[in-house]
Design brief:
Layout: H1 2-49, H2 74-77, E1 80-86, E2 91-98, H3 104-116, E3 121-124, E4 127-134, E5 137-144, H4 146-181, H5 183-221, H6 225-251, E6 260-263, H7 264-282, E7 285-290, E8 295-298, H8 300-317, E9 323-331, E10 334-342, H9 374-384, E11 388-392, E12 398-404
Parallel strand pairs: 7-9
Antiparallel strand pairs: 1-2, 1-5, 3-4, 4-5, 6-8, 9-10, 10-12, 11-12
Helix pairs in contact: 1-4, 5-6, 6-9, 7-8, 8-9
């Protein structure tokens, strides 16, 4: 159990750390992408708004020199080209004075391909482009963004490496300190189990004495409602002690004692038989579908207890005149035990807590003879058998408990 608890703690801690790291990774790279893109767009806007607009229709237009106030090297640090279109959509001019790697023919192809995407701005390879339209035509400006895109890629790769390294370092630290972190909880659980086990053994003797004394009183004085109540409550208390000890033993990861090959079909029939008479007595509809020739390896008594717990729970919490169904069948290599019952809609609140100890969906049923740990024991049995169990509702008026073992 300690190993399982440590794994859960490590998984939870790493999930939280991974989520935070992912958010930071995305946020940093999106911020850098937006900052870089805005800077490129500002540069393109400067090209368009400084001096004469490229789509003015002037045949002797030249792109403005926006570097007149900067150093002589500035114009060679920014590479761009533009294609001007008239109002009919024909290319009338290509400006490629500030780029050496793109010919006029290539510039026309890039502009045509970019315009066919339907976007007015975006990235085209290593270029950032922007379309500006006017009454006499339009112009597509391409700005070389290869240094900026390389910078974005570098930041992404570096941040990815840092994030991975941080997660690995975090995993190492969490794994190293996980045992110490869960030590108080483990200690409390251990003390709780020791108390349950010791209390169970200590209570057996007085309960046996009370039961024996009640039997003697009944033999000497005949039937008496007070003696009957003592016997009833003694049986209930003995059952509670037995179940608590069993649950404590299963929680410690101790294997089921009687593991053998047996017929699940026969075991299910035997466990379900008493509930047919109970259904008639309570006026409820009960049916069962148990596939024949189902064999498995495990503790037959534990499996029968599992079926009894699920059926007993269904009878207790089904509505008046409700329907209860037991299904046992094979699913691939697994065996499935399903118990269906109709129930009042208000009893399906907090369905995820049904397997918690001492949880009751219907708070008004406090003295129905149950102990409040039946479903917790059912889950412990299924887990000891290497399976899983869950509860689900499809319509809010019925519930299905499904155990896969």
């Amino acid at each position: 159990m300690l190993t399982k608890m440590r794994r859960r703690f490590i998984a939870s801690a790493m999930a939280a750390m991974g989520a935070v790291t992912l958010v930071l990774l995305v946020a940093i790279n999106l911020w850098n992408y937006n900052i870089t893109t805005n800077r490129l767009d500002d540069t393109i806007n400067s090209l368009i708004t400084t001096g004469k607009n490229p789509y003015s229709g002037s045949s002797n237009f030249t792109l403005p020199d926006i570097f007149s106030d900067n150093s002589p090297e500035s114009k060679y640090m920014t590479r761009y080209f533009a294609v001007v279109y008239d109002s009919d959509g024909h290319a009338v001019r290509v400006f490629s004075d500030y780029i050496a790697t793109v010919s006029a023919q290539e510039a026309l192809y890039y502009a045509s391909d970019a315009l066919s995407s339907g976007h007015t701005q975006g990235y085209y390879g290593d270029y950032r482009y922007c379309l500006k339209s006017g009454s006499s035509g339009a112009a597509v400006i391409f700005l070389n963004a290869s240094p900026e895109r390389q910078s974005m890629k570098t930041l992404f790769n570096v941040s990815l490496i840092v994030a991975a390294a941080s997660l690995l370092a975090g995993f190492a630290l969490v794994a190293a300190f996980s045992k110490k972190a869960i030590a108080p909880y483990v200690r409390n659980m251990q003390l709780q189990k020791e108390f349950i086990t010791d209390a169970g053994h200590e209570l057996k003797t007085p309960l046996t004495s009370i039961s024996t004394s009640a039997d003697v009183l009944k033999m000497e004085n005949g039937d008496n409602e007070w003696v009957d109540n003592i016997q009833k409550q003694t049986v209930r208390m003995s059952k509670l002690v037995k179940n608590l000890v069993m649950l404590s033993r299963l929680d410690e990861g101790m294997p089921l004692p009687d593991k053998s090959d047996f017929s699940l079909s026969d075991a299910a029939w035997e466990a379900a038989e008493p509930f047919e008479m109970r259904a008639k007595a309570q006026g409820k509809s009960y049916s069962q579908s148990i596939a024949p020739d189902l064999d498995m390896t495990g503790d037959m008594a534990a499996v029968q207890q599992l079926i009894s717990i699920l059926l007993d729970n269904a009878f207790k919490y089904s509505d008046d005149g409700g329907e209860i169904r037991l299904s046992v069948y094979a699913q691939h290599k697994n065996k499935v035990i399903e118990v269906y019952n109709t129930c009042p809609p208000d009893s399906l609140v907090d369905i995820d807590r049904f397997f918690d100890r001492f949880y009751r969906a219907d708070k008004s049923r406090t003295y129905d003879g149950g102990t409040g740990i039946g479903l917790a024991i059912a889950r412990a049995i299924v887990q000891a058998l290497g399976g899983s169990i869950n509860a689900e509702t499809a319509d809010g008026k019925s519930i299905v408990f499904r155990a896969v073992i």
